[in-house]
């Protein structure tokens, strides 16, 4: 592979050309291993799954441009080179998938797990950290990375799996996290809300949110999405923090449904 994405960390399962292929984008600060549970789902045994780590996340080298648009461009090249029919993204990775569709760089179905459509949808603590960085630099993120273990304990995942995910989170460079989060929030601010961009993309899309936890949508954004005939909104009961890990069977069903829409 000669694309700019070729050096990205990736995990694969399934065989090429079986029942289709899906590109999996982890959440912010996470690595490709976030999708291990999904790759183990029996419903996807005949599907090729490719999970990649976005550069600069999980301790990987950061690119010069950590903007969502650049990540979307590179991920679209990855999807095209690997002949992926569907893109699944979680949290910040979901926003990259959304921009892939909105920019026209990817024309297949997208499954967005816990995306945020505007700055106010994002966690208050993340917005607060971004406001502190002009004065304190990367130090707020250094502190956050030390505390992620406590935050992750809210997840219903087994303790050993939480420990594995937390270990990947703690591998992050706080300087890279500061840049990526700031560029991500600026991206949301440029659009005010990206919900209309998803509708205007015209591709089959599924938006999955928990009643609380990671990501969110305002009432107006939800109304916008529910008015789009090609967008399906799924609300999980209770909190959701690591959707691909906590709800792999549901995500697998959506991947199968999305692949059916490509035929």
TrEMBL record:
InterPro entries, sorted: AB_hydrolase_1, AB_hydrolase_fold
Protein source organism: Streptomyces melanogenes
A single MF term (Gene Ontology): hydrolase activity
Residue ranges occupied by any AB hydrolase-1 domain in the UniProt entry: 23-253
Protein name (Swiss-Prot/TrEMBL): Alpha/beta hydrolase
UniProt keyword list: Hydrolase
Any Pfam family the entry gives: Abhydrolase_6
Lyase keyword on record: no
Keyword check for Glycosyltransferase: no
């Amino acid at each position: 592979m000669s694309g700019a994405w070729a050096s990205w960390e990736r995990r694969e399962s399934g065989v090429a050309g079986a029942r289709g292929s899906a590109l999996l984008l982890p959440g912010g600060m996470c690595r490709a291993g976030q999708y291990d549970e999904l790759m183990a789902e029996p419903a996807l045994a005949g599907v090729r799954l490719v999970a990649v780590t976005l550069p600069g996340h999980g301790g990987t080298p950061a690119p010069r441009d950590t903007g969502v648009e650049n990540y979307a461009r590179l991920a679209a090249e990855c999807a095209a080179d690997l002949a992926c029919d569907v893109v699944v993204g979680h949290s910040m990775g979901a926003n990259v998938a959304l921009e892939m569709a909105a920019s026209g760089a990817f024309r297949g179905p997208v499954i967005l797990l816990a995306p945020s459509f505007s700055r106010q949808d994002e966690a208050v603590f993340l917005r607060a950290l971004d406001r502190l960085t002009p004065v304190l630099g990367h130090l707020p993120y250094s502190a956050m990375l030390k505390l992620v273990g406590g935050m992750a304990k809210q997840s219903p995942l087994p303790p050993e799996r939480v420990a594995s995910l937390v270990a990947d989170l703690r591998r992050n460079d706080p300087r890279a996290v500061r840049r990526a989060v700031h560029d991500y929030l600026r991206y949301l601010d440029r659009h005010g809300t990206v919900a209309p961009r998803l509708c205007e993309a015209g591709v089959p899309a599924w938006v999955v949110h928990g009643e609380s936890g990671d990501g969110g949508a305002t009432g107006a954004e939800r109304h916008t999405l529910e008015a789009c005939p090609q967008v399906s909104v799924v609300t999980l009961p209770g909190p959701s923090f690591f959707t691909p890990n906590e709800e792999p069977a549901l995500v697998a069903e959506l991947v199968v449904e999305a692949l059916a829409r490509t035929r």
